[in-house]
Design a protein that fits this description.
Number of domains: 2
CATH topology of the largest domain: Endonuclease III, domain 1
Keywords: DNA damage, DNA repair, Glycosidase, Hydrolase, Lyase, Multifunctional enzyme
InterPro entries: DNA_glycosylase (IPR011257), HhH-GPD_domain (IPR003265), HhH_base_excis_C (IPR023170), OGG_N (IPR012904), Oxidative_DNA_repair_enzyme (IPR052054)
Protein name: DNA-(apurinic or apyrimidinic site) lyase
Strand order of the largest sheet: 1-5-4-3-2
Number of strands: 8
Structural class: alpha+beta
Largest sheet: 5 strands, antiparallel
CATH superfamily of the largest domain: Hypothetical protein, domain 2
Family: Belongs to the type-1 OGG1 family.
Catalytic activity: 2'-deoxyribonucleotide-(2'-deoxyribose 5'-phosphate)-2'-deoxyribonucleotide-DNA = a 3'-end 2'-deoxyribonucleotide-(2,3-dehydro-2,3-deoxyribose 5'-phosphate)-DNA + a 5'-end 5'-phospho-2'-deoxyribonucleoside-DNA + H(+)
Low-confidence stretches: 307-362, 368-374
Length: about 375
DNA sequence: CAGGTC
DNA sequence: GCTGG
């Protein structure tokens, strides 16, 4: 009966869950009212951002001591203090204005499928596709509407195993609006199963960045850019820089990169990414995430009519607020942490030599970025 | 058009 | 080249 609940005392400037849960890293979190609902591992989790920090609770029963607190710290990458090149004014300003973004550490398998779905796609549709895949997983908990007008507003489901995913057919996926990605899903599931299933994906975490990307790219629907996304958010490869037109555009504008946005050949991709990595330093992947977010916000503001100046804290996708209630009994989100994290710190600090990344690019970095230990 | 891949 | 906003 003991519900796991507590609060992570972190400032919104360090972690802003409204941003990181809907900006295109992870796709199965949903917000009802002020509460975010999602799944981390086998935990059905509710989160609420308060002034004091992020309140959390686990709503599926059996986890009185699941180490949820330390899992969340890992999930939101809170043990990391991101390193910003000190002479990069553009980046300092961006981080100051678009604060609270983290490099999430997501489930490798879910992330792999997320970004296969991401090609030529937008967040809302990726979300519906990932919800479909998630619907094949174990039901952990369930929210019902108190009005019963709209039952089952949210089902917390563990992401299915490769074995389960491999049973999906192309027709079924196409019927679920996966489009041409249906074939990718079917082929990749079979390949992973052949390679050894879930454990094969897990072992990619311990591979070197370059090797992990190479192995990922052997799978259908995973090219260079998608592999970088998976490596960054699913495998904790901090040197990974998913390169797309948005990033090239902003680098052209703010970092004196002089590259065409289109026609990205493998050689060009490697060359550009190598230079950006040198420019942005140890946490290049996180930098990419922040600047990408900034770029999307700017392009959104451009689209809007100039006269309607909305408050920036107001979510654009605001819908009718629905009162929700947890299956069993509502969980108190206020209480202090009752979780003893006996697992201890999960993350060991290790220094990865970004210089080891092989590149054929002879050019200088775009700006001098001083490495400093914090 | 949307954070490409084959 | 799939499909929704």
């Amino acid at each position: 009966m003991n519900k796991v609940a507590g609060i992570i005392r972190v400032d919104r400037k360090v972690l802003d869950i409204d941003k990181v849960l809907q900006m295109g890293m992870t796709f199965r979190w949903r917000k009802h009212g002020q509460i975010w609902h999602g799944v981390i591992g086998r935990n059905a989790v509710q989160l609420e951002q308060k002034n004091e920090g992020v309140a959390y609770s686990c709503v599926n029963g059996d986890s009185s001591d699941s180490g949820l607190n330390s899992e969340l710290i890992r999930f939101f990458d809170l043990e990391r203090k991101y390193e910003i090149p000190h002479d990069d004014e553009n980046l300092t300003n961006a981080v100051g204005k678009y604060e609270g973004i983290r490099q999430l550490q997501l489930d490798p398998i879910e992330t792999l499928y997320s970004f296969i779905c991401s090609s030529n796609n937008h967040i809302s549709r990726i979300s519906s596709m990932m919800t479909f895949l998630g619907s094949k997983g174990d039901l952990l908990a369930q929210i019902k509407s108190d009005t019963d007008v709209e039952p089952n507003l949210f089902r917390y489901q563990a992401f299915p195993s490769i074995e389960t995913l491999a049973q999906l057919t192309e027709q079924e996926l196409r019927a679920a609006n996966f489009g041409y990605r249906a074939k990718f899903i079917v082929k990749t599931s079979a390949s992973i199963l052949e390679n050894g299933g879930n454990s094969w994906v897990e072992t990619l975490k311990s591979e070197d960045y370059v090797v992990a990307v190479e192995k990922l790219m052997t799978l259908a629907g995973i090219g260079r850019k998608v592999a970088d996304c998976i490596a960054l958010y699913g495998l904790n490869k901090r040197e990974s820089i998913p390169l797309d037109v948005h990033l090239i555009r902003l680098a052209n504008r703010d970092y004196n990169l002089k590259e065409a946005e289109k026609g990205l050949t493998p050689t060009r991709y490697e060359g550009i990414v190598a230079r950006l990595r040198e420019t942005w330093g140890r946490d290049a992947g996180w930098v990419q995430t922040v600047l990408f977010y900034k770029e999307l916000q700017l392009s959104k503001e451009k689209k809007k009519s100039p006269k309607s100046k909305r408050e920036k804290n107001k979510p654009r996708t605001e819908k009718k607020e629905v009162k929700v209630e947890v299956k069993e009994e509502p969980v108190e989100l206020q209480s202090e942490a009752q979780v003893s994290s006996r697992k201890g710190p999960v993350v060991t600090t290790r220094r990865r030599a970004a210089q080891k990344i092989k590149t054929e690019c002879d050019e200088m970095p775009l700006k001098k970025a001083k490495e400093e230990e914090f």
